[in-house]
Amino acid sequence: MDIFNSLIHHWYSLYKRNLPWRDTRNPYYIWLSEIILQQTRIEQGRAYYMSFIGEFPTISDLANASEDKVLKLWQGLGYYSRARNLHFTARYIAEHFNGKFPEEYRLILSLKGIGEYTAAAISSISFNQEYPAVDGNVYRVLSRFYGISDPIDTSAGKKIFVKLGAELIKGTDPGMHNQALMEFGALQCTPQKPDCLRCPLHERCYAFANKKVADLPVKLKKTTQRHRYFNYFDISHGDSVWLKKRVEKDIWKNLFEFPMIETSVATGFEELMAMSEVNQLMDADNLVVEKITDWKIHLLTHQKINYRIIKVSLLQEKEMPVELIRVNKKDIFNFAVPKLLETYLIRNIENG
DNA sequence: AAGACGTGGGT
DNA sequence: TACCCAAGTCT
Question: What are residue A57's phi and psi, to 5 degrees?
Fold first, then answer.
């Protein structure tokens, strides 16, 4: 028996957390939990998992829901393509597999939103198949313990880790093994300042012996940030406000937001109001500017969104552009919106 | 195959 | 502050 495996498995039997998706093998629930947990901390995803299984207990329930409703439930979690793909795939399974989640790895992998990691996680946890689920935790544990300095963010490097993972999972209880490795990475072999002195593997760990713990795993890519400037208009008339759905291939696709003019710099207010885009939205002589927020910053991994919200009220109701949706203020919280807008709405809309 | 895609917590 | 990173996938 491999000593690495037996140490990890024993550690897991002692320290594994009790998590809501740990007491089921239902592939739908495992799938849902894996999608929610992608690039997301457990404590952030946990409540979303509970509300999703509460709202959509079966794949058919999810398939029968509207995408708007799914996105609303996903609001605040980020990476919204996960929700769109989850919903798409639920409908695909309902239509092509009679609502029953497929068991064959290749088939699972072909589903939209399911990549190599997630397919392995579902196959192993739900169907006892020996596919290594190599996530960020596992890269870290393997690179440190075995002293592998190949970068984890290139396809060549990933192959090396997946190959090692495939060797290690042979002859184990695959679901337990994969979860043990990930849990060990999440709790014991942490990214920053792991408590190596209390680690049951430290006597055999390459990184510990060679003082390379802080240097492994190796990552190459640095993210660059792009600056954007969003001028939002909180337009109201009586109980009505207007929203617009983001349909472009861009951040927050299929979420709603206030009508907005994006500028390339932090345009001054007078200059902004003189722009033709603004005039297409509203007549300058038909509005009262109530309030202008300062420029605020909303940080994304690849973007720095500078935004402000200009609150105006219309003197007379006029025909608005067709893409705008008229919403009664009391219904506004039914729409899925980006976090920055949610924060604004909570602070500024009197929710009767 | 490099870059895009959200949000929040930690240092 | 700025940066890293968290159960990745898609294009």
Answer: -65, -20
Distances (CA, A) of A75 to A46, A85, A122, A256, A311: 14, 15, 25, 11, 23
The residue ranges of every structural domain in chain A are 3-215, 226-348
Does A34 qualify as catalytic in the annotation?
Answer: yes
List, for residues A31-89, the tens digit of each pLDDT value: 999 999 999 999 999 999 999 999 999 999 999 999 999 999 999 999 999 999 999 99
Cβ atoms of A117 and A111 within 8 Å: the answer is no
Q: Which one is predicted more confidently, A352 or A104? A: A104
The yes-or-no verdict on residue A319 having pLDDT over 90 is no
A155 CA vs B1 C1’ separation (Å): 8
CATH assignment, A3-215:
1.10.340.30
Strand B nucleotides within 7 Å of a protein CB:
1-11
> For the CA atoms of A48, A51, A52, A54, what is the dihedral angle to 10 degrees?
160
A70 is written with which tokens?
């799914």
Residues lying close to strand B (Cβ under 7 A), chosen from 85-124 of chain A, are none
Look at the domain A226-348 and name its fold: Nucleoside Triphosphate Pyrophosphohydrolase (3.90.79)
Q: What residues does A273 pair with on adjacent strands? A: none
